[in-house]
Specification:
By secondary structure, this protein is an alpha+beta fold. It has 4 helices and 12 strands, in the order ββββββααββββββαα. It comes from Apilactobacillus micheneri.
């Protein structure tokens, strides 16, 4: 994984290799692309790199692909991911998060992955960074408790300027949301058993759940007076 960046920022400790995100610069990232369609279930991290490069504002760490810079901003990438993979309406999920008292920025749930937001590395920037929970394996940095080490693969880590407490709080929020959605789904399942008893399979035109929820959301929007 770390073979996709220059050797200069890589640190060694015993058999462990690690890089501090704060030490990474544009010249350290070997691969730079104009456009690339990531495999969302393989994306490990989306990191805001705009402080070091205006042309390539996003650093993506992807399983097998490693580190690479892309011209697209994180917000655009996230919107693309939601459009392609989200199985439910984001506004509805955000409403659930609000009802549960979760703190911004809310988790993102897709068909194959769950992402949690990291605090902005620079308060003047508008993009959050994101981590795919599927790959999350972390521990507090031995050098600085305000930093957290994330394992990329065996004996290879990246150190980010966030506390372990923050990461754990975001994981708690995600677990609350998943637990809530699961309980709602179970209630619907129980309620539908009697209702669907003896029913025949639907044989008409099909509509995606996402499109159905989008239509539901539009109908609920207040109408403007003429």
């Amino acid at each position: 994984m770390l073979s996709t960046i220059e050797k200069a920022p890589i640190n060694h400790s015993n058999n462990i290799k690690y890089v501090n995100f704060k030490d990474l610069r544009y010249s350290h990232i070997i691969r730079k692309v104009k456009t690339h369609k990531p495999k969302w279930n393989k994306v490990i991290m989306l990191l805001d790199f705009s402080e070091h490069s205006k042309r390539y504002p996003t650093l993506i760490i992807e399983e097998k692909q490693g580190f690479y810079l892309i011209e697209t901003s994180i917000n655009v990438i996230i919107n693309q991911m939601l459009e392609e993979n989200n199985v439910t309406n984001k506004q509805l999920i955000d409403h659930f998060c609000e009802c549960l008292g979760l703190k911004h920025t809310y988790p993102i749930l897709t068909a194959h992955s769950s992402f949690i937001a990291l605090p902005k590395f620079n308060r003047n920037k508008c993009n959050h960074s994101w981590i795919n929970v599927t790959f999350l394996n972390h521990l507090p940095s031995l050098n600085n408790r305000k930093y957290t080490d994330f394992m990329l693969k065996e004996n290879q880590f990246i150190c980010l300027p966030i506390s372990e407490k923050y990461v754990n709080n975001k994981l708690d929020d995600l677990n609350k949301l998943i637990s809530y959605l699961y309980s709602e789904l179970m209630q619907v399942n129980q309620s539908s058993k009697g209702l669907l008893k003896g029913a025949t399979l639907y044989n008409g035109d099909r509509i995606k759940i996402k499109d159905c929820l989008n239509q539901w959301s539009l109908k609920r929007q207040p109408k403007l007076d003429d």
